[in-house]
Amino acid sequence: AAELPDAGDATVVAFARDGVLRAAWTLVDPIDPNAREVVAALLRRRLDVAIVTGDRRAAASAVAAQLHVLQDHVHAECSPVRKAEIVTEHERAGSPVLFVGDGFNDAAALAAASVGAAMGAGESGGGTDLARAAGRLILLRGELPDVLVALDVAKATVRTIAQNLLLAVAYNVVAIPWAMGLLARFGVVSPEPSTAGLAMAASSLAVVLNAFRLSLASARFGSRR
After folding, report:
1. Which is nearest to 200 in space by CA: 210, 212, 192, 189?
2. Which residues touch 154 (CB under 8 Å, ≥6 apart)?
3. 46 close to 64: Cβ distance less than 8 angstroms
4. SS3 sequence, the chain?
5. 117 φψ region: left (φ > 0), alpha (ψ -120 to 50), beta (else)
6. Are the beta carbons of 98 and 87 closer than 8 angstroms?
7. CA–CA distance, 206 with 198 (Å, rounded to integer)
């Protein structure tokens, strides 16, 4: 069998024929300039960060050290199936997974995760069509900081839904007894049909305007990048 050269932290791509090594190349992928900032922000949010890659253990460990990711959270030399298995293991343990990927080998893991975030093409042309098809969320610009924007917008969306439900319940708790005349004993007369209609329109408008704040929040979160 052909013996690969020692490439340290680099990834080796080799060509062998009849068990004889004919050629070998060492490849080193530069770390995304935003990766450190994004990982640090995720850790500040008390989220566990792991690296799941098909690269060699030495290369993956070197990247983890630069990003301050725990070495026991590094899964190297993973096949596409193994990546999906790792995601599934965490999901079954009760830990929802946000998996971010852009390659063919990430498609299965993107599909298995609670949220598979596929990198869009962006200006760099990165992100494969298969990854984008498998992901439930597509970061159109293909930039890592958009992971943080997506998390912020998702949190704001859940908060807005809760607020709108509260507004709807509060409106009906007050409006239904009012319309039925149950508040007459307190000196509150039943509304005229026109007044009831205006009150209903006002409640709907309040919910819509509150939901509209999400678009403003998205722009604000994006401007923080």
Report:
1. 192
2. none
3. no
4. CCCCCCCCCCEEEEEEECCEEEEEEEECCCCCCCHHHHHHHHHHCCCCCCEECCCCHHHHHHHHHHHCCCHHHEECCCCHHHHHHHHHHHHHCCCCCEEEECCHHHHHHHHHCCEEEEECCCCCCCCCHHHHHHCCEEECCCCCHHHHHHHHHHHHHHHHHHHHHHHHHHHHHHHHHHHHCCCHHHCCCCCCHHHHHHHHHHHHHHHHHHHHHHHHHHHHHHHCC
5. beta
6. no
7. 12
pTM value > 0.85: no
Residue with tokens 């992928």: 29
Residue 52: closest CA among 76, 72, 28: 76
> Residue 122's pLDDT is what?
58
Q: How confident is the model over 160-179, as pLDDT tens digits?
A: 999 999 988 998 888 888 88
144: left (phi over 0), alpha (psi -120 to 50) or beta: alpha
Alpha-carbon gap, residue 105 to 131, rounded angstroms: 8
Residue 222 pLDDT > 80, yes or no?
no
Alpha-carbon span 84 to 1, nearest angstrom: 30
Tokens of 44: 């500040």
Distance CA 169, CA 90 (A): 37
Q: Inform me whether the pLDDT recorded for 138 exceeds 50.
A: yes
Q: What is the pLDDT of residue 19?
A: 78
Query: How far is residue 28 from each of residues 21, 36, 56, 140, measured CA to CA in Å?
Result: 21, 17, 11, 26
